Amino acid sequence: MKVRLHIPDLSKLRVAILHRPHTTVQSLRRQCKPIGLEAFDCWPELPPKALAADFVFFDADMGYDAQFPWKSGEAPMPMIALIGSEAPGRIEWSLSQGADAQILKPVGDGGVFSALLIARRAFEVRQTMRNEINVLRGRLSQRQTVVQAVTLLAATGRSEDEAYALLRHLAMSRRETIEEAAHRLVHDAQNEGGLHGQFNEY
Amino acid sequence: MKLARKPLKLGILYSQSGSYGRLSRASRRGALRAIEAVNEDDSFGFTFDAIERDPEGNIDLYAPLCTEILAEGSVSHVIGCVTSWSRKEVIPVLEKFGATLWYSLPYEGFEASDHVVYTHACPNQHLLPLLSWILPRFGDRGYLAGSNYIWGWELNRVARELIQEAGGEILGERHLALNDTDVDRLIEEISATRPNFVLNSLVGESSYAFLKAFAALAKRDSYFTPESCPILSCNLTESEFPKIGDAAEGLISTGPYFHGAKGWPCQGKREFESSLEAASWAAVMELSLLLRANPGFEHAPISELLKVNRQRTMIDTETHHTALPVLVAQVKDRSFHVLEQWEDIPADPYLSYSERRTGVRQPSLRVVK
Question: In terms of residue numbers, what domain contains A143?
Answer without folding.
Answer: 137-192
